[in-house]
Amino acid sequence: MNGIEYVLPSEIEKRSFEIIASELASNNIVLPADEKPVTMRVIHTTADFEYAETMCYSAGAVAAARKLLQDGADIVTDTNMAKAGINKKTLALYGGELHCFMADDDVAEEARKRKVTRACVSMERAAQLGKKVIFAIGNAPTALISLYEMMEKGVYTPDFVIGVPVGFVNVVAAKELFLGSNVPYIINKGRKGGSGVAAAICNALLYGLAEDRVV
Questions:
Q1: pLDDT digits (tens, 9 = 90+) for 29-62
Q2: Most buried pick, 30, 65, 121, 180, via CB within 10 A?
Q3: Active site residues per annotation
Q4: What pTM was computed for the model?
Q5: DSSP class of residue 28?
Q6: Where are the beta strands (DSSP E) in 44-131?
């Protein structure tokens, strides 16, 4: 059939990244070396090349996130979908655990009583884990807002924020809170993002560590 490219299942991801690299080059887009594997995995997940222009990284963000993971940091997500997509086996190699408190009954009950979102309560729970945490937020801007408010009050400062919630209400403003902060971050400007993007970023960081481990 015309236009069909026959690729072995084991080669599909490799071929996909070759196509992404070729299209970036054809559009004269050069990604910083440290950020390239992360942004390319996001493009691979979404088939959306706009991320090459909108992904934002604080200075040394990739190295900082990888150091946290290497030292056994946990990852906290705001959706079970993102949790399902993150490579738990690789995270566990370094002593890290994966958490999502959003569906916990006690979180839902507390949120109802306080008239706040479950994301807000979930971030407060995460702040009590007692270890380094990377927050991977792909859905709820109120998660980012809650983290920022805790930081402003001096109650808690996140170690790293992956801020890629998707949507229309408070999404852009919530992301911009951290663009002007001192917290290390990987954030996608604008309305785009999602649980799949959050998971892709986490996996890109973890796979980079795994590759170094083999070398």
A1: 999 999 999 999 999 999 999 999 999 999 999 9
A2: 65
A3: 44
A4: 0.94
A5: T
A6: 55-57, 74-77, 98-99
